[in-house]
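Researcher: Go.
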Amino acid sequence: MVKVVSVAVCVLFLAGCSPNTESLQRHTADATAAAKRDADAIARGVAEGLARKGPLDINEASATELQRLPGVTPEVAGKIVENRPYASTRDLVRKRVLSSAEFDRVKGQILVK
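Model: Structure:
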């Protein structure tokens, strides 16, 4: 967004127009706020990733731990626990606990020991 504002200022300058400083200030403030939100989200994601101890064993993980997986609601976590044991992670789809799309979102973060 900052690059877009910079490009807009350059275009106005080259066109011989003087930029409206209030508009420029507003756009700069908006871009700064968006960058801050993005940075906060990235920082939270990094912290969450570092807190993870690796893939979850779906035969051992608690419902609360399972809810940390992308898209796993309390109801889905309960279904995972209820349908144990699993011989492989793919059993989540075979037992109709997760759809193929849901499984694809979590498959890199789960395992069966």
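Model: Strands lie at 56-57, 110-111.
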